[in-house]
Amino acid sequence: PPEALLVGLETGHEAAFLGDATAILGSNQLQPGDRQDQVILGVLAARYFAQQASATAEVPSPVGPIALAAVGSRIPIRGHDFEVLGILEPETNQLLRSCVVMPLAASQRLLRQDATVSAVLLTPQSTRDITPLKDTIEQQHPNLMVITEQHLAENAGKLLDRVTQLFNVVRCTAVSVAALIIMIVMFVTVLERTRELGTLRAIGAPARAVIG
């Protein structure tokens, strides 16, 4: 559903996607082994699946208590049952708030993408290694798309520029329409009071008073 982003990870490598995100309920780690029916939910995904969960738990929020799929409950995802191991801290980024993290093999089965990996996340020990690593990957694997944090920042900047341009167009349009309306109103006003203004000038009213 729109409230969930299904992410398959190799067990033991959750930090590659979750970073330092903590869990408000349960664990932020998948259990090791071959178990495939386990998930970690972002708070928005947990709120969505609460409607179908075998048990729910309430957590406080600024707008009052909200019901989430409880840790240990079972939820259906694409016709398969999964056990909820944990709920991620809601103050993390929007991507993590909506995620449904599960073992890689389980996600490949649900999405019908057997033996397929859509992304590999690499975290160099030093930021100086990012550019050389990117260049090496692009040279050895020209069919892969390599995206760094710099690319993400540039894309975000371009998106903000487009939004700014849109607001500038709206603002200029509003100002132009307002100016046109003022001109029309002034023209009609002067047109309706031509005889009166002419009389005022004829009896000696100064031009400043008439303009006023």
What features would you describe in this structure?
- The chain has 212 residues and is of the alpha/beta class.
- The protein contains 8 helices and 8 strands, in the order βαββαββββαβααααα.
- The protein has helices at 15-18, 43-49, 94-97, 104-110, 130-140, 149-192, 194-202, 207-211; strands at 5-9, 23-26, 38-41, 56-59, 66-69, 74-77, 80-88, 99-103.
- The strands form 2 sheets. Strands 1, 2, 3, 6, 7 and 8 form a 6-stranded mixed beta sheet that branches. It has a two-stranded antiparallel sheet with strand order 4-5.
- Strand 4 (56-59) and strand 5 form a beta hairpin.
Task: Name the descriptors.
two-stranded antiparallel sheet; 8 helices; alpha/beta; 43% helix; six-stranded mixed sheet; single chain; 212 residues
